[in-house]
């Protein structure tokens, strides 16, 4: 019996040693398998993260391309805006020049109005002189019937006749001067019409430029909308990047914990595990460096582009402000132009009233001449068909005939047919003189020097003519006085015909001036229509600008809301990070407390988690053995704390079997703990 007991004790010790030697190997194998599964999961997560990073890089590249395209479009739009601003400035300068021209034209119009009033005053004076002359002639005509034959000698006085002829010549010269002035005024009116046409063209150009500016504003609105979309996409990408960085941080924390666990579990398989760890560390460091470098580049690019876009946005705002100021200035200028147009219309109305009054005066004067013609024994039908100047000349000639005693003009001319040969020569000579005078009047505006020379020649010709006339009168004597009178009358008739032609020309010019005035009225109406259209366009532009301002205010409010949301998310993430740090600190404290309870110094241990778990499993296994030995009547024994020193009593066959079962149960519990830890880590 004594020999059997030590044999059993030896067997039990061997069994305990084998069990203790098997327990750590089984635990290590289970831990290695669990850690291998964790490593595979981490590798899959790495692959997923890499695919996500590739997708994100592709999206970033697409977004960068879109941003580059948008920046190029913005540059083109800025260039177009600068060109349009230059065009607007040019148009402003043109407007200023046109306004100066308008002011100059207004000054000219005022001068012309003054000149017209002066000419009207002179015409009224001339009409008064004519009325006086006509009244004198009527008096002579009325008194002629009551006077005797002795008075006829007074009418044939040459001094009085020469005075009347000189007075008539002065009147003719004044009429020619007035005709030249009328032609100058017509030329000025034509120049004014041309200037008004040029002004209308510039107004059309300004309308086209306003339409172009509206189109450019619409394009800027589209670009701003695209910028908002790109910014929203950038925000989404930033949120994704933040999420991925948080996931990476969590993955890094997990990887560090697993690396520690792997370093604890790979004491026996150092070569294989070291190689894996080195490869994993290299990949992780490379991955981290690549990710950090990519994020730094992306952040720098985004910051630079955001700064550029903000600067461009500020420039666009300043351009809009300048355009608003330009619109206000154009409105003021349009208001001033409206006032000027109203003044011009009032002046036109006054000129029409004056013209109607002049027509009425002219009709009255013509009626008066018709009465005078009836008294001068001129047929009333013939007088009504004549024009004013013709009628005046006819009355004048008739009065001369009456004064000279010739009551029958046609019979005297037929009777004196034999005397017409000498008179015709004189008529031709005088006609030549008249034609040369008309040529002189035509060239009087352009050639002053030639005019002076011609005037001297005319003076000589007049002197020669007067000498010839005096010689002829002395030679012919009193018998041929009648012939001289007839020749003078013929000359006067030819002059009157020329003046009639001039009057016809002046009438035609007057009609043309009236047509031009009607055209000017139409042009003024068209200008008013254009002004109304410009006012409508300006109101539309204001509405567009107000809409843009509303959209900008909405965009600002959205940006403020998004910024507030981002600040709230950052504060929540900071709170979660602080909670995680607290939980980690509490876990470290709990580990230190458990190690102190077991009798271990955590700071001195190389792998504290692994040593604590092994110590706890040994305690649990020894406790189960004690619980199993009590019902079989086995004596209590002391279980040492160290796992290396172990003692045992004599055990029977079934007891040993039960001990093996107990150890298996402890191993199962340890495995369940490892499974729980793995599930918690995952």
From TrEMBL:
<protein>
    <submittedName>
        <fullName>Uncharacterized protein</fullName>
    </submittedName>
</protein>
<feature type="coiled-coil region">
    <location>
        <begin position="241"/>
        <end position="275"/>
    </location>
</feature>
<feature type="coiled-coil region">
    <location>
        <begin position="413"/>
        <end position="583"/>
    </location>
</feature>
<dbReference type="InterPro" id="IPR039139">
    <property type="entry name" value="CCDC170-like"/>
</dbReference>
<keyword id="KW-0175">Coiled coil</keyword>
<feature type="coiled-coil region">
    <location>
        <begin position="32"/>
        <end position="136"/>
    </location>
</feature>
<feature type="coiled-coil region">
    <location>
        <begin position="313"/>
        <end position="347"/>
    </location>
</feature>
